[in-house]
């Protein structure tokens, strides 16, 4: 633990020095390619910093926040785009906060989802308690439970963990930046279609980053070529491809095992199936407007996501023991908190 604390200090000091460079040096370079070139060494450094850490959660958090989110924000910063456009930050502290906090910064006109059924919504404390309960139950019964049940629990835990970190980040953003960010998810377990899940409900901050760094530039580029009028499909598939590659990098940081490309295949499959789904919905709308009730389409959507995650998303983490290690770390934190409460 002591060595990990030292590593965390080194990583955080490296991040701080890098962002000071971005603020003092790169921001003075005219926006465009030259500023992007000045930022490339920092982006490359951010992909290497997670390797300095030993534990699963510090590596996962650093990889997600720095190698992915912060790096994509710096790409937008190179072209003076939000959230790091020159008009959005007033000081070094403000700039660093915008880079590091994974908050949703673009208003999505379709948020919250117009298809949202009027069911229950889990509040933040309930999510924390539910996650702790799943860790305890899973640790005690993981060798007796059926694999399908285990993978369903992994899906639920992944959602809860991301939402918990998003809630903490939003609270920090409110305290530091004096703004109230949008929620980064909208009850994804209530999704009624793949388009609803990926575009309007799941990890909306990441959706925004990919929309402004990948989808819109490629769609604009394709629209000027022979693909004019059909630019949406290749741009959408490119988004899922980039998301898959970034998840491969995240898994590589966590497991230190060579990529198997299963995760990339998972996201490409999601993109292809979403494209087919949208075509079918468009055809049905043109031929009478028939559609499935959300009570049917919802379970079908969630079921498809769980089954494909079991097939392609979780196996790399299971084979390398990363999930077991993460559960062990969670249990260690819970035990520590219990001791603190008793004191």
UniProtKB/TrEMBL annotation:
Domain of life where this protein originates: Eukaryota
Q: Which Pfam families match?
A: MBOAT_2
Its topology with respect to the membrane? Multi-pass membrane protein
* Keyword Disulfide bond set for record: no
> Could you tell me what this protein is called?
Acyltransferase, putative
Q: From the UniProt record, which GO molecular function terms apply?
A: O-acyltransferase activity
Q: Does the keyword Ligase apply?
A: no
**Ranges of residues in domain Wax synthase:** 185-268
An annotated GO cellular component: membrane
Source organism: Ricinus communis
